[in-house]
């Protein structure tokens, strides 16, 4: 029989609240979380771990830390890290003030021990975020709802995540 070692992971659901302000003095597209992706978030996390917890901190989480999902639409991010050191990753997340020049306030929504719970929470969070968008959009153009496609797509993407 093959010896299977189960690595215990923690799944962090994080919302990066975008605090970047529109610079009215220039015509440039403002920096926003729409320009972010998993790689940029990973790099910012790595820098935060090293800055706040040193090389030993990075040594503890570096092998297991992965950005599994990011949605620029709802700013929701799913991060996987080994259970034994997940507090280092958690700390590094909460101490982030920016990702690739985009100013953010990280909000840890949920920490779960299984991918299943992380997926359910992520899907629920996206639904709530879209519901808020829809309420805001009510008074604009009627019958124009791009969000159905987004919800279907994001739900599929999240459900497809592997441990």
Written description of the protein model:
The chain contains four helices and five strands, in the order βαββαββαα. A five-stranded antiparallel β-sheet has the order 2-3-1-5-4, sandwiched between helices. Helix 1 crosses helix 2 and helix 3 packs antiparallel against helix 4. The radius of gyration is 17 Å and the shape is globular. The relative contact order is 0.20. The model has no long low-confidence stretch (mean pLDDT 88).
Strand content: 15-25%
What's the rounded overall pLDDT mean?
A: 88
Helix content: 40-55%
Structural class: alpha+beta
How would you sum up this structure in a few lines?
By secondary structure, this protein is α+β, with helices and mostly antiparallel strands.
Structure keywords:
163 residues, alpha+beta, five-stranded antiparallel beta sheet, 4 helices, 42% helix, 22% strand, globular
Produce the secondary structure layout.
Layout lengths: L8 E10 L19 H24 L4 E6 L4 E7 L3 H9 L3 E2 L2 E11 L2 H23 L9 H13 L4
Antiparallel strand pairs: 1-3, 1-5, 2-3, 4-5
């Amino acid at each position: 029989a093959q010896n299977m070692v189960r690595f215990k992971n923690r799944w962090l659901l994080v919302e990066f609240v975008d605090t970047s302000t529109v610079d009215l003095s220039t015509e440039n597209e403002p920096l926003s979380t729409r320009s972010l992706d998993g790689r940029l978030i990973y790099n910012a996390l790595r820098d935060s771990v090293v800055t706040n917890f040193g090389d030993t901190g990075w040594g503890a989480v570096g092998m297991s830390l992965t950005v599994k999902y990011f949605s620029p639409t709802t700013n929701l991010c799913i991060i996987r890290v080994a259970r034994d050191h997940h507090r280092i990753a958690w700390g590094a997340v909460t101490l982030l003030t920016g990702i690739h020049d985009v100013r953010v306030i990280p909000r840890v929504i949920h920490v779960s021990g299984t991918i299943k719970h992380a997926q359910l929470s992520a899907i629920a969070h996206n639904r709530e975020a879209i519901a808020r968008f829809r309420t805001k959009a009510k008074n604009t153009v009627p019958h124009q709802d791009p969000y159905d496609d987004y919800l279907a797509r994001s739900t599929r993407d999240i459900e497809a995540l592997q441990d």
